[in-house]
Design brief:
Layout lengths: L3 H22 L2 H44 L2 H9 L3 H67 L8 H59 L3 H32 L17 H4 L3 H69 L29
Helix pairs in contact: 1-4, 2-4, 5-6, 5-8
Length: 376
């Protein structure tokens, strides 16, 4: 197998070509992200403007009709003349005319902004399409470059120990990122499960409350109807809390720090109790229902507290993952830099011709703000 220097010399022309092509489009991914966000902002502004424009058109139509009706009301004008109030009538016509002209002005101003936004959106969409092509080309060139480096620097390179050191650093960064990503995914999924569990326990509390109300009614002679309502709600509470406990178990499996949670023993009775109704048995069962309600409330409070805590963990793990992602990107960039320097030292040919100027977001026309959609 050829030694490292031979492999570098053999790949030199390809390497220089790839680096040159990448420099032409390396601004594309970041610029595409900028322009895509800008396009979304424009579309949001246009949507709001169209809603506002619809209101302005209705207002203009209303003012136009009022103005025309008043202006063309010869009978009313004649009546005012006979009563000596013609000046007041003329003043009213002028007021209606001003209101109509103001509404018309606002409508036309909004239509001008609408045309501006539509033209800008069209131009930006074309720019985004061009940048998407460039960004895809950059990704493809990047992959080719990585494959070239892998082929050239495969295995230990004792002649260039700094390259070996950076390879190890990249692998450590990969492992750290993979671990952080797994933790983040687990914490986010656990938080989602906790949300569902909290909703289920909240329902169970409601069913227990209904059962307790029915049980209290039963103590005051609610009879069979109260017993049936009581048992039905307890049955629903038992089923709902069982579902919640399953969700909590899944969440705990993803994040061991969650919990623990106490089991709630939902009060239950035999069907025969409904027909063998008596005050003593009603009272004894009422105490059980009340205890169930208290335990369910305590469980709900515990779940709410744990959910809040888990949301905090999920946020922390997401931040940790982002940090790990940044560290990995930095390590990869440093490894690429070292490899370029190795190519330069062996071939004597500079790998970089200079980075092209970054895209300036100020080149794009600004989107209209909410205040600009309204005219005085």
């Amino acid at each position: 197998m050829a030694d490292i220097r031979t492999r570098i010399l053999e790949a030199a022309d390809t390497h220089i070509s790839l680096i040159s092509q990448m420099e032409d489009v390396e601004h594309a991914p970041f610029t595409l992200e900028q322009q895509t966000k800008y396009l979304d902002d424009l579309k949001g502004t246009l949507s709001s403007l169209k809603t506002e424009l619809e209101k302005l058109r209705k207002l203009t139509s209303k003012e136009r009709k009022g103005h025309q009706d008043l202006r063309d009301s010869f009978a009313r004008r004649y009546a005012h003349k006979l009563t000596g109030r013609s000046e007041k009538f003329v003043s009213k016509i002028e007021k209606e005319e001003r209101e109509y002209l103001d509404a018309l002005h606002n409508e036309r101003a909004a239509e001008e902004k609408e045309r501006y936004l539509e033209e800008t959106i069209s131009e930006t969409e074309q720019r985004v399409a061009e940048l998407t092509t460039q960004a895809n080309r950059y990704v493809n060139l990047k992959e080719q470059s990585e494959q070239l480096y892998k082929k050239v620097f495969d295995g230990p390179t004792p002649e260039f120990p700094e390259e070996d050191q950076m390879e190890i650093a990249v692998q450590h960064a990969k492992d750290f990122f993979a671990e952080a990503q797994t933790r983040c995914n687990n914490d986010q999924e656990a938080a989602k499960l906790m949300v569902r569990a909290e909703k289920s326990v909240a329902k169970a509390v409601k069913f227990c409350d209904e059962a307790l109300s029915a049980s209290s009614w039963d103590l005051w002679g609610g009879g069979t109807v109260a017993d049936i309502i009581e048992r039905d709600n307890l049955s629903k509470a038992k089923s709902t809390v069982s579902q919640a406990q399953m969700l909590l178990g899944q969440a705990t499996g993803l994040q061991a720090a969650i919990g623990p949670f106490d089991d709630v023993k939902v009060a239950s009775g035999h069907s025969a109790d409904i027909f063998l109704d008596n005050p003593i048995s009603d009272y004894e069962f009422h105490k059980k229902v009340k205890e169930t309600y208290v335990q369910m409330r305590l469980l709900h409070q515990k779940v709410q507290l744990e959910l809040q805590t888990q949301r905090g963990r999920a946020l922390d793990s997401k931040n940790n993952m982002e940090d790990a992602k940044t560290q990995l990107a930095t390590a990869r960039a440093e490894l690429e830099k070292v490899r370029r320097e190795v190519f330069e030292s062996v071939t004597g040919i500079p790998c970089s011709t200079g980075t092209p100027p970054a895209y300036d977001a100020m080149d794009s026309p600004p989107a209209l703000g909410p205040d600009e959609m309204h005219t005085a």
